[in-house]
Amino acid sequence: MRFDLISIFPDYFAPLTLSLMGKAEDAGLVSVEAHDLREWATGKHRSVDDTPYGGGAGMVMRADVWARALDEVLAIPLRTGDEDGTLASSRRILAIPTPSGTPLTQPLVEDLACADQIIVACGRYEGIDARVAQHYRGVGVEVLEFSIGDYVLNGGEVAAMVLTEAVARLLDGFMGNPDSLVEESHSGAGLLEYPVFTKPREFRSLQIPEVLLGGNHAAIERWRRDRAIEKTAAVRPDIALSLRADSLGREDRAALAACGVAYPREGAARPVDIRRAEVGDAHALSALAARTFPEACPPDLPREAIDAFIAAELSPDMFEAVASQPERYRILVAEVDGALVGYTLTVVGKGAIPDECVRPGKVEADAAYLSKCYVDAPWRGSGIADTLVERALADAAQCGHTSVALGTNRANKHAQAFYKRHGFRRRSTRIFDVGGVLNHDVVMVRHLTGADGRQLA
Ligand code: ADE
Fold first, then answer.
1. Residue 375 above 60 pLDDT?
2. Is residue 272 a contact partner of residue 261, using CB atoms and an 8 Å limit?
3. 166, 184, 190, 413: least CB-packed within 10 angstroms?
4. Which segments within 215-319 are labelled E, that is strand?
């Protein structure tokens, strides 16, 4: 790949002969040519700029000088067949650094790395006469006006070097170890990179995260991915909302939702707020419950029974009563764009488990009871339910519980698999009355303390 960097300060580009960039040039992988714009200037003073039409501060670089330079550099044959322009397959890009340009991002850099030649026209002063970009676009040249950030430099040279290095390092054979490219910031899903550590093992009493010291590669990979997600959500919420959704697995989505970013199955990601319900949420909660409860019922359950259950158990009054007793009933809600899209209801304290539902002796008497966990259909698989459950478990642990029990319809294998992923195990069965129709549920229990007594939730 060929880079032609045109500037009134061609010496600026000397650092590109160093390090990996210099090696790549020696190896013939890239060629970097710096050109002095003044070679195409005329007159005694070889002037390249003039005062702006319309007035204003500073000087503007002349289109005629730039055009002479660019015509010549754009005509350089890149390979045999190019001399007479018959080889149309060469991709040449005219890149113009400017603070008003398109942000230079990794996906853009990845695209530029497919070009055969990138010519960077480095402006100084107030920039280059706008007709330069207009003209070359007009004659079919691919023109990219790009910015390396929301700040103003003295000229385009530093931006040209940034572009050159960012593009060149993606070329096959540039990196000693191409694996380095795979997990770095902005690659793959677009996440920022996870933190890295090396020797010494202890530095000023700071330790290496335990998981990195064991050989469990899957656990290490998960830990790194979770840290990358946390970092991205904290430092670049804009990036967290615009990741490549097809590169996000279920656990990624759960980690993102825990950081306040929900990726629905379809459509754009949205910020999600997971919070305690207030009494004022009662109507919205009742409506959400009425929408979601029927979807969790077995298909043969009559609609009248479902409606009777909703009227009796999921009314606004019921939610108002429950939300006003937070010492007994803990409700967490997930809110997206001002609407409730998911909730959990956990009963805590002594006698939380409804004993008419649980066979005696099968569930710890002091368990908390996860009575409800529902998420609106478009947000299933977004990680919202995972976050709600994990927060509910943590809350139950904080209330002093060492286990949490729940019941779910025995036909609902999807729900059982979900709870299993969250550490619940099948323990018992119960009969659950929905509007006078008796249903068979499985009862599942999750312990909140490990064998070593460590809190897990
Ligand atoms: N020239 C001056 N400032 C610049 C920036 N932020 N990006 C690209 N080119 C520039």
1. yes
2. yes
3. 413
4. 261-262, 270-276
How much of the chain exceeds pLDDT 70, in percent?
A: 96
CATH architecture of 270-447: 3-Layer(aba) Sandwich (3.40)
- What is the Cα–Cα distance from 8 to 37, expressed in whole angstroms? 5
251 C-alpha to ligand 1 centroid (Å): 39
Ligand 1: does its nearest atom lie under 6 Å from the Cβ of 100?
no
Cβ of 147 closer than 6 Å to ligand 1, yes or no, is yes
Tell me the average pLDDT across 82-96: 79
When pLDDT is cut at 50, 70 and 90, the band that residue 451 belongs to is very low
Spell out the domain ranges in the chain: 2-181, 185-247, 270-447
How far is Cα 402 from Cα 422, in angstroms, rounded to an integer? Answer: 15
Instruction: Decide: 151 in ligand 1 pocket, CB within 6 A.
Output: yes
Cα of 103 vs centre of ligand 1, distance in Å, is: 10
User: The domain 2-181: what is its CATH number?
Assistant: 3.40.1280.10
Local structure of 328: helix, strand or coil: coil
Amino acid at the residue 50: D
For CA atoms 255, 256, 260, 263, give the dihedral sign: negative
Q: What is the average per-residue pLDDT within 89-93?
A: 91
For residue 450 the two structure tokens come to 């490990």
Q: What is the pTM of this model?
A: 0.91
Residue 184 is predicted with a pLDDT of: 81
**H helices of 101-142, where?**
106-112, 131-138
Q: Is the pLDDT of residue 454 over 60?
A: no
Could you tell me which CATH class the domain 185-247 is placed in?
A: mainly alpha
Sign of the dihedral through C-alpha 387, 392, 397, 398: positive
E strands, 403-449, are: 403-409, 425-434, 437-447
